[in-house]
Specification:
2 domains, six-stranded antiparallel β-sheet, 14 strands, 17% helix, globular
Length: 363
């Protein structure tokens, strides 16, 4: 009996020494406006824009929250919550993000809300996970700033679609080269005075010559796509309509067929040779069939039904890139109850300031 009691005491004593005193939650929380945090956030925003195929590029507006976890055996993982704002640059526009103007409130701005996991290893950042959604500013807020400014209209609104088609017809009538097809309607607004419809839309060149087209349905998009982005206003006049349209053409972009992630969870580990490959866009609405070959590609889908913008939720939801060569998946542990965020073993410290500064304006 005495031996049993002695053994029990030894076990309890060993248990007490095995638990580190003052152990923290296993992560640290740098300030949202620290340089290291902003570098990770900018890498996350770059990743978002590289994977967008519809709508507009987004820019960083505010870092709401950050936690940094050690990733064995090397590196750190930044778990970020970010606010972004839509810019005026089309998603496929090669213009650097720094040169893209932010969509202002009176233009009916759109805000993005993202959750990201960014790995920092050997001074380089790579995105492990991205999940976003975006929302237009409320009509009430726009009206406070500009009572008579037009609001966003549904992308499949009959007037918006008609304005895009009429503007595209005008573009092809003036074209001395390729016949262009509509890729997507990106934005539409109904202007009350004068009665008109404003529309922004993307186009791509086909294998047809504009002056010789008799049946547009037979024209196929070129595999080496030549994209363009147009802004047009269709004004209603007595006895007819008047269309004013301007387009910007981009450099030819090759078509790349990429696999889709299975779900909104990080992908399984992959060999080191595949690490640098960017993750494909998330699975959203089914894409149109792609004709594999040197010349033509399938016609893309039309605008989202009953939506006023291309929600990031549908085109960047659960996008995940491969893990590092260590093969160890990142999975942050939940902090113990009552644990204070901060550096491990530093109980009582005031949490670093978050959210961070607003770079443009808050919606």
């Amino acid at each position: 009996m005495k031996s049993f009691v002695l053994l029990l005491c030894l076990v309890q004593l060993w248990s007490c020494h095995s638990v580190p005193v003052g152990s923290g939650p296993g992560y640290r929380e740098p300030a949202c406006d620290d340089l290291e945090t902003e570098q990770a956030a900018l890498a996350a925003v770059d990743y978002i824009n590289q994977n967008l195929r519809h709508g507009y590029k987004h820019t960083l507006n505010q870092i709401d929250k950050v936690r940094v976890w050690q990733r064995r055996p090397f590196g750190e993982v930044y778990h970020l919550e970010l606010d972004t704002l839509e810019t005026q640059c089309y998603a496929r526009d090669p213009t650097p993000l720094a040169n893209c103007s932010v969509r202002q409130v009176f233009e009916h701005a759109v805000e993005g809300d993202c959750e990201m996991q960014v790995l920092k290893q050997d001074g380089q950042f790579s995105v492990l996970f991205a999940k976003c959604h975006s929302t237009p500013d409320s009509q009430e807020d726009v009206r406070k700033v500009c009572p008579h400014c037009p609001l966003l209209a549904l992308l499949n609104n009959t007037k918006v679609v008609h304005a895009a088609e009429a503007a595209l017809a005008a573009v092809n009538a003036q074209s001395n080269g390729s016949y262009f097809k509509l890729l997507e309607i990106s934005r539409g607004q109904l202007v009350p005075l004068p009665a008109s419809t404003y529309v922004e839309f993307a186009v791509a060149a086909t294998d047809c010559v504009a002056a010789a087209v008799t049946d547009p349905a037979t024209c196929k998009l070129l595999a080496e796509k030549k994209h363009g982005f147009c802004k047009a206003t269709l004004t209603e006049k007595l006895g007819g309509e008047e269309v004013a349209v301007t387009c910007t053409m981009f450099q030819t972009q090759p078509v790349a067929v990429q696999p889709q992630p299975d779900a909104a969870i990080p992908a399984s580990p992959a060999p080191a040779a595949d690490q640098a490959a960017p993750a494909p866009p998330a699975a959203g609405p089914p894409a149109a069939a792609l004709v594999v070959g040197p010349m033509v590609a399938g016609v893309p889908l039309g605008p989202p039904r009953h939506q006023a913008h291309y929600d990031l939720r549908h085109f960047l939801s659960g996008v995940a890139s491969v893990e590092s060569a260590s093969g160890e998946a990142f999975s942050p542990r939940k902090p113990p109850k009552g644990a204070q965020p901060g550096v491990a073993g530093s109980a009582g410290l005031v949490p670093p300031p978050c959210p961070g500064r607003i770079r443009h304006f808050k919606i």
